[in-house]
From TrEMBL:
A GO term for molecular function: RNA-3'-phosphate cyclase activity
PROSITE patterns on file: RTC (PS01287)
Coiled coil: none
Lineage: unclassified sequences, metagenomes, ecological metagenomes
Protein name as it appears in the record: RNA 3'-terminal phosphate cyclase domain-containing protein
Organism: marine sediment metagenome
Amino acid sequence: MTDKPVEIDGTFGEGGGQVLRTSLSLSLVTGRPLQITNIRGGRSRPGLRKQHLVCVQAARQICGAETSGDALGSKELTFVPGPVRAGRYRFEIASAGSTTLVAQTLLPALSLAGGPSQVTITGGTHNSWAPPFDFVAEVFLPAVARMGFRSEAALHRHGFYPAGGGEIAVSVEPWNKADAVPLDLCQPA
């Protein structure tokens, strides 16, 4: 592992929260430190919003990361991950921010943590500009299961804009290479 952080410009591509979420997920999986500048620089209100901050806090909690810049409105973040730990986790967005996007940030790393995990997230479950819970449960998770990633999701309570208040629970089993098959999504199922 290298101590030099991977440097990410948050204005890259669409310049939104997906740059942050993907970067955090890859940092968790690889163990490489991360430094992001211009977070959500392509948005009219750049910087960390509640949902993005919860992604950072959740990623920090599952691996004991050292962080700086993890505050509402921050446009820069340093994230130095530790080993990802399987376990029971609960994260509250306290708005209608997307529960499914927080889950997608964590699931790859938790599946490689060596033990089962249970993640409960409160917030929005059916949001504009984010995959709704039903897509994650019925399309995304079955697709990644074909690659050996076994997870199940339960919708405990719906949450919509502007109040949120929804709750999802995701169980994550350790990745099993024996279950993995090449994934070919070139033809409709």
